[in-house]
Specification:
The chain has about 575 residues and is of the alpha/beta class. The protein has 22 helices and ten strands. This is Double-strand break repair protein AddB.
Length: about 575
């Protein structure tokens, strides 16, 4: 259930804080279009019921948040009660799960002591709890012994201690690691100090600085003989320079060497060398070349996917053949896609109201509709405040642009978010269906058709449209010629127009792509290219390559990690250089 909640409600733009925000997101029916439920547990709890359980578990802590200043000990007690309620399962209580084991014991003792000491503090607001816990736990580390699995979890294991030389002399352990066995560290460099020279120290009866070396040697012998197992550690470099092993370690090695012996190397040294030594010469990874059977290859695509098919065929393979979908990030920042959804939906609703909306004050009405749609989205308040004036400016631009277009009379017919499909025949793999949705289609009183595409982000370059790389709008025109959008919208498009709607300093811009004979030739060439693309991928030997054209790569490479693009593209670039 927790995984289901994460996939459906927490991935993508974050809902507003609190259980209420999660309920709002659930009530809005945040969809699960890409199989987010595919890896759910066998029998997940209904999300609404799961949120009820979470809300009941957090009730003690929520009471602290909703109330005014209160004793810190009471807030900590509410936190503990909520944590135990969240940790409980059907077969184990939350207290048993939280406070058992070494980590649980240490945390329980720490919180118990903190609650006892916090009685002297005045009442505080709940927002101080985070800082209080962070400060009280700073530097606390509990190292768990993995070998305790399956044994008594209450047993306390001998921890790892880092001691100085004086403390080490007083301890008895099973294994000791003597670290930093280099000159100037162990033993330390001799230093008579800034106040007295060596003769002055001798006249004053003070020991010579070299006494520290003898004391360090004594500590070395004491520590080396204090445990059954001793590891002598010498770094290869110290402070960026080659390290010089300690003199007594050198003497020990020389002594053993004269008797045909040596200090045995720790096995970890061989492990390290094996980690650094690859088996055989390194081989650069090759770009993927999947060739699924023709029967597995997609026989229907949207017009928006044709551009992806050309720029990154592997993405079509991963999405349509393997059925993989990009998993949104947790608390993903709202991006242009969310902004574009609001703009498209508001314009769709506005034009669907009919021609009478242009009789009054269209700018005010459209602005109200934009802001209403923004409120329905229930975005974060800061983001909504950032987008509201931009949407208002778009409303003004659309009203002025439409007034100019309607100066010679309103269009005979306006259709928005018009779905369409065309079946292409005559391929080895069978019929192929092209689907699309036109943002807007106008039919004027002279019978001319105009196709509109709303863009709230970057427009495709005209060169890319003419060359066929950005073919969405042109393919929609080709579908319209073949009756893909219904009989009343069948015919040649007289113009293709991009509306760039940013709401910035220039809130909108109308950019025609082509018209007349140029448009007719462009549509014919684009349709011919599509048929050639379908025929090419109906051949069994045709692979779905990843980024086959480096200069015309996709704008969003959702499957670049799966295709390991960073590895083989770097090798390709180096080879090309």
């Amino acid at each position: 259930s927790a995984r289901l909640l994460e996939r459906v409600l927490l991935r993508g733009p974050a809902p507003r804080p609190g259980i209420g925000g999660l309920r709002d997101a659930l009530a809005r029916g945040r969809d699960d279009p890409h199989g987010a439920l595919a890896d759910r547990p066998d029998a997940p709890e209904d999300l609404a019921g799961f949120l009820d359980r979470v809300e009941r578990a957090l009730a003690p802590l929520q009471a602290c948040v909703d109330g005014g200043p209160m004793p810190v000990a009471d807030m900590l007690a509410g936190l503990v009660e909520a944590a135990e309620a969240l940790a409980g399962t059907e077969d184990r209580t939350g207290a048993d799960r939280l406070w058992s084991g070494e980590e649980g014991n240490a945390l329980g003792q720490h919180l118990a002591g903190l609650i006892a000491f916090c009685n002297i503090l005045p009442p505080q607001r709940a927002d101080v709890l985070d800082g209080l816990l962070a400060a009280s736990m700073a530097g606390l580390v509990v190292r768990s012994r993995r070998a305790l699995r399956g044994r008594n979890e209450a047993a306390v294991h001998p921890r790892i201690f880092i001691w100085g030389l004086m403390e080490a002399r007083l301890q008895a352990v099973e294994q000791v690691v003597l670290g930093g066995l280099v000159e100037t560290a162990w033993p330390p460099a001799t230093d008579p100090g800034p106040w007295m020279s060596r003769p002055m120290r001798a006249r004053a009866g003070l020991p010579s600085p070299e006494r520290a070396i003898g004391q360090a040697a004594h500590d070395f012998v004491a520590c080396a003989c204090a445990a059954p197992q001793v590891v002598l550690s010498v770094p290869g470099r110290r402070e960026g320079a080659p390290a010089v092993p300690a003199r007594w370690l050198v003497r020990l090695e020389a002594f053993l060497s004269g008797r045909g012996q040596s200090v045995p190397a720790h096995p970890a040294l061989s492990w390290l060398s094996r980690l650094d030594r690859p088996v055989g010469a390194p081989r650069p990874v090759a770009p993927p070349r999947p060739c699924p059977p023709v029967a597995w290859r997609p026989r229907a695509l949207a017009v928006t996917e044709i551009e992806t098919w050309m720029r990154d065929p592997y993405a079509i393979y991963a999405r349509r053949v393997l059925g993989l979908r990009r998993l949104p990030d947790l608390e993903e920042a709202a991006d242009a896609a969310d902004y574009g959804t609001i703009v498209h939906d508001a314009l769709d609703r506005w034009f669907a109201m009919g021609p009478e909306v242009w009789a009054g004050d269209p700018e005010d009405g459209l602005r109200r509709l934009f802001l209403m749609r923004l409120a329905d989205a229930r975005l974060r308040p800061a983001l909504a405040a950032w987008w509201a004036p931009r949407l208002a400016r778009i409303a003004g631009w659309v009203a002025r642009e439409e007034a100019a277009r309607r100066a010679d009379g309103p269009p005979e017919l306006v259709r928005t978010e018009q779905k369409g499909r065309v079946v292409l025949k005559g391929f080895a793999g069978g019929d192929f269906t092209l689907q699309g949705r036109a943002d807007r289609v106008d039919l004027d009183r002279q019978g001319r058709l105009a196709l509109f595409d709303y863009k709230t982000g970057t427009l495709p370059r005209r060169r890319s449209v003419i060359a066929g790389w950005s073919s969405q709008l042109v393919l929609e025109a080709a579908m319209m010629e073949r009756g893909g959008f219904g009989p009343e919208l069948t015919g040649r498009a007289g113009e293709l127009i991009y509306w760039r709607l940013t709401g910035g300093y220039e809130p909108g811009e109308a950019l025609p792509v082509a018209s007349g004979e140029e448009l007719a030739d462009l549509v014919a060439a684009c349709w011919l290219n599509l048929r050639g693309l379908i025929a090419t991928y109906d051949e069994v030997e045709q692979p779905y390559l990843s980024h086959p054209y480096p200069d015309e790569g996709p704008r969003f490479a959702d499957y670049a990690q799966l295709a390991r693009v960073a590895e083989w593209s770097a090798a390709r670039d180096e080879g090309g250089a």
